Every structure is written in C-alpha cells, then in structure tokens.
Amino acid sequence: MLLVVDAGNTNIVFALHDGGEWRGIWRIATETRRTSDEYAVWLLALLTHSGLERGMVDRAVIGTVVPAALYHLRRLCRDWFDVEPLIASSRLDWGFEIRMDNPAEVGVDRLLNGLAGHQLYGGPLMVIDFGTATTFDVVDREGCYTGGVIAPGISLSVEALHQAAARLPRIGIGRSQGPVIGRNTIAAMRSGIYWGYIGLIEGIASRIIAEVGEPMKVVATGGLAPLFAEGTTVIERIDPELTLDGLRLLAARNPHPTHPVDRTTND
Length: 267
Description:
Layout (H helix, E strand, L loop, with lengths): L1 E6 L3 E7 L4 E8 L6 H14 L9 E6 L2 H15 L4 E2 L20 H14 L3 E6 L2 E7 L5 E8 L1 H11 L20 H28 L4 E5 L3 H5 L7 E2 L3 H12 L14
Parallel strand pairs: 1-4, 4-5, 6-9, 9-10
Antiparallel strand pairs: 1-2, 2-3, 6-7, 7-8
Helix pairs in contact: 1-2, 3-7
C-alpha cells in the first residue's frame, strides 16, 4: 500500500491507498516540534483501529509546504515503515509544464491540485483550495499549470479582524443565516465575513475566466469548501481528497526511491 502524507500549515493528513481506494484518512494538527516517534504512536494506533498493519505499507510519498516538518515525517517513513519516501517537488516528473517564472517557488500543494484536477476532470480548470490561504490555481486545456491567485484564508481574516479591532469578538466561521444587513455586532460580522468571502470567490473566479477567455471547470477542495459552495454557483464540484489524489498520481509517475540513504542527515 501507498502511505500518503500531505503536510499543510494547519493540518497534516495521513492516508493509505491500496491501488484501488483509500483505506484510511487521518488528520493531526501541524506541529513542527512533533517527533517521528510521536507521529508513529498516533498513526499506528489508528491503523490498528482500522484493521490495518504497518507491514502493508511498501511505498510512501510526502508533500509539504512546511519545510520544518519534513525531517520527522521522513524519519517516520524510514524508521517505522522501512520505506524511503518520495518527496514532492517541482523537480519531479509531473507530466505537464509548469509555466511560472520560478517553478521551484510554487507550493507543491498547488501543483498537486492541478495534477489531480486535470487528471480527474479535464481542463481548462480552476481549483479553489480553502486552506490556511485560499488559492486559485489554473490549468489549461492541455494540463499545463499556468499560475493562479493567493488570498488570505478565511480563518486568518477572522482572527485578524478580532485582533485589530478591540471591541469585535472572535467568532466562529459559518454561513450568515439572516439578512445581509446585520441587526447586531455578531450578525454584522457573520454577514461581512461570509458574504464578503463569497464576493472574493466570485470576483476572482470571474476575472480568471475572463482572462483565460473560455469556460472553465471549477473544483473546490479544503475543509471549508462545502460551506462556501452553498453560497455561490461558481463552484461546480467539491473534491475533499484532491491533494491526496495528486500525491497518489505523482507517486505513480515517478520511481520510488530505493538507494541507501545516510540516516545521520536531515536532507
């Protein structure tokens, strides 16, 4: 089985794929000081609970936008699963051209979304990922990654509003249920946060489509995708496993590392 590790700024997702389907998907908060042994205790317990064994893992792939987390995730694969993981980077074979000024600076999560999105849905395609940042990534009809947009994530926006305005409370993220015009502070904040973000989604998406010059499929991923899909017709499909599928497809395209490694380094 393939062990897939998607390390984001907020959460790290671990998943097992048996070649036909996902056998388990588990999340843990991103904490760069967490050791490989701590990951192992947590993950092996979940495997056992799901009727799986670590000996079933024969390959691993890691995608991370948190470089400080990579060392212990790699040690987890080496020491506890006895596999050398493939590390997602722009230097691998993606099967498409990365049309950016500096391909190495593109977050691998964005490339993974583009890879899986085009493979599963075709193009031209826009992928909206609701993560710590909200990203809009564009893939053309041939599957080439052509760039995108990075906006502050909704959680960051909510926290910034609370921190910068002394009299505004910290509120949870949810759909505004009443009229747009709030009759109290909380209602006004909920309306502004939700409908303001819907406006951001629709505004950026419409400008991207106009710039591309032809209709595009729009796929959303990330934990908050269902919430915002309720408020707009721009989003056509929600795919919560899109980034994981990107890692799975990337691992299938590239040879699994087999050479002995110097386990005294943190490369």
